[in-house]
Specification:
2 copies of one chain form a homodimer. The first copy, chain A, is α+β, with helices and mostly antiparallel strands. Chain A contains 5 helices and 5 strands; from the N terminus they run αααββββαβα. The first copy, chain A, starts with a helix and ends with a helix. At the A-B interface, strand 4, helix 4 and strand 5 of A face strand 4, helix 4 and strand 5 of B. The structure holds a DNA duplex.
DNA sequence: CGTAAAATTAATAACAATTATCATTTTATA
DNA sequence: TATAAAATGATAATTGTTATTAATTTTACG
């Protein structure tokens, strides 16, 4: 991977985001910093960064991929009401890779856990309106 | 959900499949039984069956959704070599929903675990060729 | 430094998977 | 059996993403 100004800006922008943005969301922000950046450049670099383990690509949350600068082991929860994505600690599934490899005899290279449901804020709102 | 001949055939075909087919794969099989069936009908019914909990939609394995007639709690593994999809027992992550709800205060409605790696057969083949 | 090879870019065409539309047909039930 | 709701087939449209290409930028090295 050679240096590229665009990739640096993409990574910086992702790091500055507490959310787990989609490419489309990131693109809107990037456009204001770097008006000539191309959507293809964004996708190319996000995939490249993910392939090199610098960031993480999250699939299965909704129709598009999301991207996460936090590469520490953790999972994700998407709220069906507000659509926000939250982190879930890896404590909820201890030793899952070792257990899976032991059970199957397969080699696990990567894995992900995705939860769907209602977040605490939205649960509160529902409770209030009743 | 009213009865429909096409939906019955779709469900029967899915049940007869040990694999976890994509819509495209299923469509090829269906065509031979029911030549006039439409791809839109297939997608419509797969989503409908999944929404009603009759089958399960698996996302995040590869670029397309896969469908599973087995609705018992279990996870999936896709081999990056042979592309086959395998079941993984729910034992590898005991009480994950309760733990997640306790940790987050969120309501978990559904979740899925997807593993990527190399299956035992492909590991053997790699070992042999060395 | 200068320059050639390799990597990256912007722009956009192309693609694959899925969903929407709509006129017609099938199903449930009064 | 008449009628309203549900489902269908055909296909257009949409969405998210990747491929192509000519131009530009970056890197390696003489």
């Amino acid at each position: 991977m050679n240096y590229s100004r665009q990739r640096e800006i993409i990574l910086d922008t992702l790091k500055a985001n507490v959310v787990h943005p989609t490419a489309e969301y990131l693109y809107a922000i990037l456009k204001s910093k770097e008006p000539n950046i191309s959507l293809a450049t964004l996708y190319r670099n996000l995939n490249q960064l993910a392939d090199n383990g610098v960031i993480k690509k999250i699939d299965g949350l909704d129709t598009s991929s999301h991207f996460d600068h936090n590469t520490h082991e953790h999972y994700h929860f998407i709220c069906e009401k507000c659509k926000r994505v939250f982190d879930v600690s890896s404590d909820v599934a201890p030793d899952i890779v070792q257990k899976t490899e032991a059970e199957t005899g397969f080699l696990v290279k990567k894995y992900d856990i995705v939860f769907n449901g209602i977040c605490r804020d939205c649960l509160e709102k529902i409770k209030e309106s009743n």
